[in-house]
Amino acid sequence: MENNDLEILREGYMDYLRETRGLSDRTQKGYLYFFNKFSHTEISQDIIDRFIAKNKNDSICRGFLLSYLKFTGLNTTYIMPEVKTGRRKKRIKNLVSEEELEIMKDYAYKKKFMWGILFDLLFQGGMRRSEPLTVRLNSFDWATWFKDPNKMCRLKIMGKGKKERVVLIDSETTAKLLKRISEVKKIDDFHALRRKVLIRTTPLFPAYYERKVWAIIRKISIKSIGRYVRTHELRYTRATQLLKKGISVRDIQIFLGHSSSQVTEKYLITSEEETLENIEKSL
Description:
The chain is mainly alpha-helical. It has two domains: 70 residues, no CATH class; 177 residues, Orthogonal Bundle (hpI Integrase, Chain A), CATH 1.10.443. Helices cover 59% and strands 4% of the residues. Strands 1-2 form a two-stranded antiparallel sheet. A hairpin with a 5-residue loop joins strand 1 and strand 2. Helix 2 crosses helix 4 and helix 5 packs antiparallel against helix 6. The mean pLDDT is 87.
């Protein structure tokens, strides 16, 4: 295949991943890596099988090939070899108790103020660890919140597949952040502060990246409650907390940014005792 033809194919494939599939930049980068390694001159079942075997059945490699075959319309011509793995243990979903949440939160704020803000946004917004990185100063709906600071503040974030959604952050956290901004920027005049937060597009966590978010939450949990809490366990806990407050699964699905309610239901953890109590209340 000529270089020019390959470049056209590459551009078309990347547009397909971005526009049609809505994949994240990270996934696109991983697929592009294997796109550049793959032989596009000749495609056969044997070449596909050997390519996967050479790359040790890597999941990103398989994902690339699946998407590439669909993009080229060859997904009905060739099949993917079976995944040869042993039985994989499912990761146990642990909820974080109310007491543990408070201890972790207190530790985070005492260690570093922005660690506390990060913890609050992750938990309250039911966020994935990549999502706080999309928050900017004007992502908060300050204009509405200023009218009634006792209410929760709406926060616009960019979710999975670059899908925008809005989450809710409590008034205490919002007020803390605003006070911190006024102190750091030395702005005493309320109207000047209001103008600043309404128009500034400054990232809230400019020096953070996904692995750093993971490391911060890991350190907070181990140092404060003596066990490792994953960022996704905060998300499970928030989803289950909302369910217990009577929020419907459909509403929780939208809040978490899930594509279907089936995904959301996997997040909701209830004990046998809670299930029996719920049934008893309904009968």
